[in-house]
User: Fold this.
Amino acid sequence: MAGKIGLNVTQICLAEECSEDEIVEELLKLNEDPRVHGVYLHLPQASLTSRVLDTLKPEKDIDGITDLNVGRLARGDLSKGFLSPTASAVLDLLVKHGEFVEMSTRVWHNTEAQENISSKFELWYLTAAYRTQVSLCFLSLSSLSSNSLNIVLSLSFITLLSWFLLFVDQNVVHSCCRWIQEKQYRPWLLRSLKLQPLTPVPSDIEISRAQIPKPVNQLAEEVGLLPEELEAYGRNKAKVRLSLLDRLHTQPDGKYVLVAGITPTPLGEGKSTVTIGLVQALSAHLKLNSFACLRQPSQGPTFGVKGGAAGGGYAQVIPMEEFNLHLTGDIHAITAANNLVAAAIDARMLHEATQSDKALFNRLVPSVNGVRRFSPIQISRLRRLGFNKTDPASLTPQEVSTFVRLDLDPSTITWQRVVDTNDRFLRKITVGQASTEKGQIRETGFDIAVASEIMAILALADSLEDMRNRLARMVVGTSRAGQPVTTEDLGVSGALTVLMKDAIKPTLMQTLEGTPVFVHAGPFANIAHGNSSVLADKLALKLVGRDGFVVTEAGFGADIGMEKFFNIKCRASGLRPNVVVLVATVRALKMHGGGPNVRKHTTNLSLVAGGCHSNLRKQIQIAHLFGVPVVVALNVFKTDTQAEIEHVCQIAKECGASDAVPCHHWAQGGRGSLELAQAVNEAANRPGNFQFLYDIEMPIAEKIRTIAQKVYGADDIELSPTAKDKIDYYNQQGYGLLPICMAKTHLSLSHMPDKKGAPTGFVLPIRDVRASIGAGFIYPLVGTMSTMPGLPTRPCFYDIDLDPVTEEITGLF
Assistant:
């Protein structure tokens, strides 16, 4: 059905009777083939149906017959379309023989001209007219000398065909050049959405619903994404393919901005809101390319205490309902993958406990049509065991036993099931109580989904291959011989990659002012590293261009999320930040200055100063440990007084901030963060001197001690006997060169949640040390840390409902 002409053009012709469906199927393949830059439809008139023509991509239509290309030609725009090679050949011949006159619509009405055209010329001329479907230049027979006419009409069919093919080749070259040009970086043509802030400020969901977002494919085009790089999930969000990194690999990165915060109150201090307000100010008002990179919120907090994480007021990601709920299903994919591992663990222990070596081997390597073969993942296990064999029949009985038995010690299993709900009653459960499980009873528990190691891997992987390798390295427990057992040993790592293959692509959304946002990954910062994905940042840094900005957020206070961003995420990505935006609020500063947690305060400059000179100063110093300049963003609440605002900004500068500015994005949108945007732009253009806090080759205990003393302000650390044993074990297994991810309360710089300000004189207790080998870090447990939150007396879900008629959601915030 299809014959190749060279490497860049394909001719579709009917070698036999083909149906319209077959032609369409072939065209769809050619549309997606990057090796084909042009398609010529050499089909009978009856086969050139509207469906066939509509299927062919206009950019590959070198014959110029699709409706879009004909329309472009009709208005004289050939910047993207093509002129039919047939028409080009005829008209060029006429021009070369000097018998060409101006454009006219009378060609079809000039009976005399039509009657005098020879059959040969009529064939080509009328074909040209048919192909272009527009007004053509025509031949004025009265002005033609008989000699010239004879020369034109006497041209052989071969000559005319050669002329035609010349223009086919020319169109292919144009198509290829356009294809190459499209692959280059394209300047943004961002159309911002207008805001009309109201006073008083309505609820978050009312503001979100009042703004109509741009179609996501339009937003993608505005920021330089190609249609083939987008996978739409409805009208408002889309996955972005990682092939973008290959296309723009030579493009310089933009500037990298991290938004962190002081130690927060239980309600948070608005880092997400500041992040969104900042990019709205940069893009919509200063006309500087900028991307926000945010974490996907867990449904635990959304229905629990804190609510959603789309920002707030006039600095939001929209639609906020889609952002805060299922989004594109990444957390569900993580839940499915995590629980597949848990199911594989218990099933394997059951089968090993109830079957002989021979029975296990026969089931793990079944005979198919009389032949046994190892699967690739089983050959990988054999290699790790030191067996360089590929024939199942060649294994000795001892090798068979070693191969089929993981011999997991149930007391060492660290892998738990997950669910994306705050459910305190799942913190400890018993499994295997049914009679069918033959006494394989053990205690285990559930974590919240975003605490899964798979979530951390999603956030740190820099390619699909890297994610596959990390998933394979995950350690789920230890054998009775003391050896780590991985998901690769379980044979499940390939299946995990399949479950996660779409989740690895960041999701594109937009702010209230139409500026782009990547939403990807969502690990908590107190029990994981608390940052959005490396891949989202890398994609965004390429898209914004050299002078653009990527603004990402680290969870909780700078001592938690920012420290892990620098020491873990930046080590994994190789990226280096240009500036830190440190978010503070008057209410949190008063708390750190000696006031109560979240009550409304009267004006009290003394409490404000106390919080600035303790917690704010310490968090600025932490950022300076890494050699990064700090801009303090004071997230202004309507209860804050001007005296308090000015006092905070003055003291922040005295404490070492490059600048400190009040931010009114909640009430005004991007316009309320213009001062912040200008301060960030100025700070980001200063030379940086980034450095890590510790050498990765330091002993595990020394890395923990360095963080405790330099970041938290502790005098020293105290390792429990369990923690010491674990550190010794990890050193024996070769895990000593991994960075540290402290699992600590976010409510204090210390391990004591009620100690506010900047505590000193304490010893940091390390009760246990665990390892996320796939994610690539060691995580010490400081004090008592729960990986499954519980619901409060009155959760947020009391206020959430749906109108069954309009399907509008109420109560989300």
Summary: The chain has 31 helices and 30 strands. The CA atoms of residues 487 and 671 lie 50 Å apart.
